[in-house]
Structure formats: C-alpha cells, structure tokens
Specification:
Blueprint (H helix, E strand, L loop, with lengths): L11 E7 H17 L4 H16 L1 E5 L2 E9 H18 L4
Antiparallel strand pairs: 1-3, 2-3
Helix pairs in contact: 1-2, 2-3
C-alpha cells in the first residue's frame, strides 16, 4: 500500500525580512503584549513573537542579515491585521 506524505508547509507563507525590520516587528508585538496581556491581540502577539523567536532562521543576503520564518495563512492574515491596528494607533510604520 502506497502512502502519501502530507506537505507540512501547505498553506504556509515564507516571510523574509531584514534583521532590523524583524526587531521592529518584535517591538510592535511587544506593544500589544504590554498594553493588555488579557486582550486577544496580546495573546496572538505573544504566539507570533514566540514563533519568530523559536522558528525564525537568520541568514546573510549579501552583506545584510535577514530572517526567514514560515507563517500559516491565518497567522499571516492576523499579523497584517495587527500591523494595521498598530500603525493606526501609533502612526509609526517602522
């Protein structure tokens, strides 16, 4: 009997960002976490931050340090939504 391997990265989006942008992203996530730890977005921010810290892969692209991390579609959509909330609340994009 032939068995098929499921693609463990199905529905995943690989995100590549510079190390500086990654640090800014972590700071923005920290803003959600510190603002109200019981808020659903603070819980989501903590989960995404933990994922970046645990699964983010650093690599060099030329002379620039970058970070790659896989997000599932629902995580990527939530990250975009939180980014929009953050920018709207602070007026700070980076």
């Amino acid at each position: 009997m032939k068995t098929e391997r499921k693609n463990s990265k199905r529905g995943a989006v690989e995100v590549f960002i510079t190390a500086d942008l990654c640090n800014s992203l972590i700071s923005a996530l920290d803003s959600f976490i510190v603002a109200d730890s019981g808020n659903k977005y603070a819980v989501y921010a903590q989960k995404i931050k933990d994922k970046i810290m645990k699964h983010g892969r650093c690599f060099m692209n030329g002379d620039e340090e970058n970070v790659a991390v896989y997000f599932y579609e629902n995580e990527a959509a939530l990250l975009i939504k939180m980014f929009a909330i953050y920018v709207n609340a602070t007026g700070n994009i980076g």
